[in-house]
Amino acid sequence: MLYYCEYTYVPGTTAQAVRQRFVQQHEAGAHHQDKWRGWYNLAGGGAGFVIIETDDPREVTSILAPYMDLISWDVRAIYENDYNTALAAYRQSS
Fold first, then answer.
1. Whole-angstrom distance, CA of residue 16 vs CA of residue 19
2. What's the pTM value of the predicted model, to 2 decimals?
3. What is the signed CA dihedral for 7, 13, 18, 20, rounded to 10 degrees?
4. I want to staple 49 with a disulfide (CB 3.0 to 4.6 A). Which of 6, 11, 42, 89 is the partner?
5. What's the gap between Cα 76 and its chain centre?
6. Which residues have a Cβ under 8 Å from the Cβ of 14 and sit 6 or more positions away?
7. CATH number of 2-93: 3.40.50.170, 1.10.1790.10, 3.30.70.1060, 2.30.30.30?
8. Which residues contact 35 (CB under 8 A, 6 or more apart)?
């Protein structure tokens, strides 16, 4: 399953604090980077999203929890649509 994990820095959080935490988590082996399918920043900084793939939603929590004092998360389970398959289904149901 894929999880869309939108983030926004908590007011007062600095980019430096996030960078330090990121390195700390990486060095501790806590990122589970094999589960990361994408990582995107929004223009302007302080926000973006990560796509995580796992069959266990508890893994999502364990990956994101170390940042919860710095970052606010909005997590949603997502799935991919195939354009042509959706078009064919929509044509049948119209």
1. 5
2. 0.86
3. -170
4. 6
5. 9
6. none
7. 3.30.70.1060
8. 52, 53, 54, 59, 63
